[in-house]
Amino acid sequence: MKYVEGLHCIKCAKKYEADPERYLCDDCEDGILDVDYDYSKIKRDWSKEILKNTSDQRIWRYTPLLPIEENTEKPKLAVGNTPIYDIQVLADELGIRKLIIKDDGLNPTASLKDRASAMAVVKAQEAGAVTVACSSTGNAASSLAGNIASMGGRMKSVIFVPDRAPAGKLAQLLVYGADVVSVKGTYEEAFYLSAAAIDKWGWYNRNAAINPYLVEGKKTVSIELAEQLNWQMPDWLVFSVGDGCTIAGAYKGLYDLIQLGFIDKMPRLLGVQAEGCAPITEAFKSNEKLKVSKEDTIADSIAVGKPRNWIKAVRAVRDSEGDMINVSDQKILQMMKTLGEKSGVFAEPAGVAGLAGLKKAVADGIVKKDQSAAVVITGNGLKDIKNARKAAGNPIEVEPDLDKLTEIFKKMGVI
Amino acid sequence: MKYVEGLHCIKCAKKYEADPERYLCDDCEDGILDVDYDYSKIKRDWSKEILKNTSDQRIWRYTPLLPIEENTEKPKLAVGNTPIYDIQVLADELGIRKLIIKDDGLNPTASLKDRASAMAVVKAQEAGAVTVACSSTGNAASSLAGNIASMGGRMKSVIFVPDRAPAGKLAQLLVYGADVVSVKGTYEEAFYLSAAAIDKWGWYNRNAAINPYLVEGKKTVSIELAEQLNWQMPDWLVFSVGDGCTIAGAYKGLYDLIQLGFIDKMPRLLGVQAEGCAPITEAFKSNEKLKVSKEDTIADSIAVGKPRNWIKAVRAVRDSEGDMINVSDQKILQMMKTLGEKSGVFAEPAGVAGLAGLKKAVADGIVKKDQSAAVVITGNGLKDIKNARKAAGNPIEVEPDLDKLTEIFKKMGVI
């Protein structure tokens, strides 16, 4: 970690050594930490040109900006290098000048969370741990299980889930060989049991909200986007927001790039929450402390009623002169279909919430007609076929008869 | 198409012009066509070095070896450039020297079929068609719908399915905006209605088995693999086999590379079918004409009782001095879990059948202990969660109590 100076608390600024097991500030409630780099040292050793000639296409191509030892073994999965698409027909539909979609649902386990979980596998080894644990039924869990599996049996993942978790979501975890602990109780009870177990057995904690290193994994999404755009950032960069880690990570990546002179301005960040669970938007608008929210939305990957990383998220949006906005489940489902039809990108509800929010922000005049935006799709639609069915509409039903088909097609205007 | 000389029938060798709508030989039953190239002309204009400096990472980087006009608009989806993993722990488990896994389930719509569908979108335009149709409930359909969608509304897909098709499989198609025609009848009736409709309205036919150009899309999988392996091919290259197009395509790609001098020998092809549907293995072993088979396997993407491309498939395996083998559904499910645990790659049953077949081929002495192999995983496990659940096993059930968890973990040897 030759470029890491240490950690600091984002509330009281107290400094800490960059110990792989240092998670929180000792003095502050919600004392989330941030990793500090020696940018002048990085600038001396690293450049856009060196990066261009780096053959590793995974997130590890950005190692000088990551809080890891160069030689720690990396999980094998090809995390990162997800495609970007310039989609004029969607830009036109939203009423803006230019729109870039980055499909992070094409990561190996099908979500952006692979970026954080790959980092967790590296940091766990640096902490001397063999087992990494988390409490989740979602993308954090599957990405952890997959990245651990790609270590070929040398490490283990333990995932705590409430017993109401749908069997389909557990299938991916179990195929990856995770020890899945189904807790007879609520999500809270599963969480507290996982915390007790992590404490008792000294496992590494894959909880992006309190682990400062995992956000550094997530920041690769904005660094990668910047490189793909040849360091020309759009006016707006849009993310769906749950616990706040992804947008905070994206901000950190952009901050790093500005310090290095790789980009010259911070794009405005637009954070989008679901109407049924929008505590960070509320804290941002009210300028007050976060209030715990209900979790009433189909976008389960961002349904976080008590987000741990809200301070970093609000800071990211504010410092970038950005904004927060909420969207209804109905608009999310509509946008899932619009995105699929216009681009061939299939997103889960949380994955497309950002784009639905951008549409609203344009309608509300927050994003202007002559501006450009990039939206990161955070998870693959194959993760949530149940909601995809709600978005999809119905097939055309017909007897096996060409005349009848012709009639129906005529009515529908297909022919 | 400056390097394409034309087409020839693989049965009678009759030559045809490379018309985008030329599908079959006029004279032969099962008269599948093959595309011929002027390799000396390609060699003059193209080299490994030029390829190395080609920035397009999609399958279009191999355009000199594709039967397309250079300027036809490409679908936007980032098809190709799927990762390869060198997995020693799996090689050890199978008892061979070296094993490469190529995860083609990370294509944009989550299967290898994207390579053929992207080609269909290009050839349809060259034929002057706006609509492309097929009859399928599987990966051919979803990849067609996704690639068409990525044309941003300028083209359309029409997909014919029998009304027993599960709603989950239709969701992805409908989100991509395909016109899905649910035919009240069998799969055969859906197929014949699609054929009649294609004929009546002049749509482009996305049927890999009879369309010679689509196999040329599929061949990019072996060309890409060869480039990723720095042109050093393993002793064996392994594919699951359904209608025969994928293994035939892989062979064609390798044949091209040998003609160009990019690789110096043809790896042996191992074709793997499911025990419950193995007509091509039977034809290969018996040296007789193909007999239609039942379709009794969980590996639905390769459950093709009457494969159209069996002649090309058998020729590919024979010319490469390869072999064919069958595996049971139980072995497929077991291998789904083994692959997941050892590599973090989540495959659908048909996607992992090749690997299960390789294991059997090693046990049978077909593949030797000192040999190397590469296996292409053809589809993502998220496509078929129902079967993943069968492979996955069960979670550990526990009360929210650390003492009880400790007890269970001790019994299971987790701690």
Question: What can you tell me about this protein's structure?
Answer:
Two copies of one chain form a homodimer. The first copy, chain A, has 16 helices and 14 strands. In chain A, helix 5 (139-149) links the parallel strand 6 and strand 7. Chain A folds into two domains: 84-111 and 213-392, Rossmann fold, CATH 3.40.50.1100; 114-207, Rossmann fold (3-Layer(aba) Sandwich). In chain A, helix 4 crosses helix 5, helix 8 (212-218) crosses helix 10 (245-260) and helix 10 crosses helix 12 (310-319). The mean pLDDT of chain A is 95. Chain A is globular and about 75 Å long. The relative contact order of chain A is 0.13. The first copy, chain A, has 415 residues and is α/β, with parallel strands linked by helices. In chain A, the strands form three sheets. Chain A has a six-stranded mixed sheet, with helices on both faces. Strand 14 of chain A pairs parallel with strand 8 (179-183) of chain B, so a sheet runs across the interface. Chains A, B: It comes from Halanaerobium hydrogeniformans (Halanaerobium sp. (strain sapolanicus)). Chains A, B: GO terms for molecular function: L-serine ammonia-lyase activity; threonine deaminase activity; threonine synthase activity. Chains A, B: Its EC number is 4.2.3.1. Chains A, B: Pyridoxal 5'-phosphate binds at residues 139, 378. Chains A, B: Pathway: Amino-acid biosynthesis; L-threonine biosynthesis; L-threonine from L-aspartate: step 5/5.
Structural class computed from helices and strand pairing of chain A: alpha/beta
- Count of individual helical segments of chain A: 16
CATH class group of the largest domain in chain A: Alpha Beta
Helix content of chain A: 40-55%
Main-sheet strand order of chain A equals 4-5-13-10-11-12
Strand content of chain A: 15-25%
- Number of spatially distinct domains of chain A: 2
